[in-house]
Design goal:
The chain is α/β, with parallel strands linked by helices and about 300 residues long. It has one domain: Homocysteine-binding-like domain (TIM Barrel), CATH 3.20.20.330. Helices cover about 40% and strands about 15% of the residues. It has an 8-stranded parallel sheet. Helix 8 links the parallel strand 5 and strand 6. Helix 3 packs parallel to helix 11, helix 6 packs across helix 7 and helix 10 packs across helix 11.
């Protein structure tokens, strides 16, 4: 069975905050603290352990540790010439985790592509430069053997369009059949970072043959309800949703996410059974415990037909 044939797909949870909770020796960072992607080559066992925890929790599809693995982001750490190496290592780490999990059920690898740190609509980067960087990362992920691509935490529709065009051009050139998921980020005030509403998102992405469209990051599930309702009524394809563990709060100088696994899964169950969401998981803050509760709570759930 392919990824696209599953009526309900359970994704994994947060990479960054989960890594922060793990005991990673300082030597693994080589002075590049904050570059989670570097761990793919400096401490592969750490990344394999990360994936394994979410697989044990019930994730059906795991995202590669490549959110910031474009040359644009890696250049901030002097790693811009190691894009293919690090992306390939990330996919291999995910494969190793799946092999060790030895599940009777199929597990899938999604190549994660983040928004980089530069938004073209604000003039941070020229479209050609962004496209070239995306082309290198996308090609590396596909060559390494992913099952799908997930373009996530999108904050700029120009960036989204450039990424989708690039991905589909490469997929066609390589003669692959790989589903492409797209997930945008809507801020607390109800729009993307640059002021775009969900209606404009749907109109812009509708011409592309994406596997799914949905939301992730920025807020917890409660602040995504109106956007999910809009997608239910106006998007004909599959809908994804993987929120943060609630809105972040600062407690004693530390960023904390307040939503319990039970609260989180309750909201997500409603999205699936009432709003037609068929791809679910977690973003910032969500731990293996959240994915375990989510997986258990959705065992008999069936996405409502839109």
């Amino acid at each position: 069975m392919t990824l696209a044939n599953h009526p309900l797909i359970i994704l994994d949870g947060a990479t960054g905050t989960t890594l922060q909770s793990m005991d990673i020796p300082n030597s693994a960072w080589d002075g590049l603290d904050g570059c989670n992607e570097y761990l793919n080559v400096s401490s592969p066992d750490t990344v394999v352990e990360l994936h394994s925890m979410f697989l044990e929790a019930g994730a059906m599809a795991i995202e590669t540790n490549t959110f910031g693995c474009s040359s644009i982001v890696l250049s901030e750490y002097g790693l811009e010439n190691r894009v293919r190496e690090i992306n390939t290592a990330a996919v291999n780490n995910a494969k190793k985790a799946i092999k060790a999990h030895n599940s009777s059920e199929p597990k899938y690898i999604l190549g994660s592509i983040g928004p980089t740190t530069k938004l073209p609509v604000l003039g941070h980067i020229e479209p050609d430069a962004l496209t070239e960087s995306l082309r290198e990362q996308t090609t590396s992920l596909i060559d390494a053997g992913i099952d799908g691509l997930i373009i996530e935490t999108c904050q700029d529709l120009l960036q989204v369009k450039l990424t989708l065009v690039t991905c589909f051009e490469i997929i066609e050139k390589l003669d692959k059949k790989i589903p492409v998921m797209c997930s945008v980020t809507m801020e607390k005030l109800g729009t993307m970072l640059v002021g775009t509403d969900i209606g404009a998102v749907v109109a812009t992405i509708a011409p592309f043959p994406v596997f799914s469209l949905g939301l992730n990051c920025a807020t917890g599930p409660e602040d995504m309800s109106s956007h999910i309702t809009y997608l239910k009524n106006n998007w004909t394809g599959r809908i994804s949703c993987y929120p943060n563990q609630g809105m972040p709060e600062v407690v004693n100088g530390q960023t904390c996410y307040p939503m319990s696994p039970e609260q989180f899964s309750h909201h997500m169950h409603k999205f699936v059974t009432e709003d037609g969401v068929s791809i679910v998981g977690g973003c910032c803050g969500t731990s293996p415990a959240h994915i375990k509760q989510l997986s258990d709570h959705l065992k008999s759930a069936v996405p409502t037909r839109k």
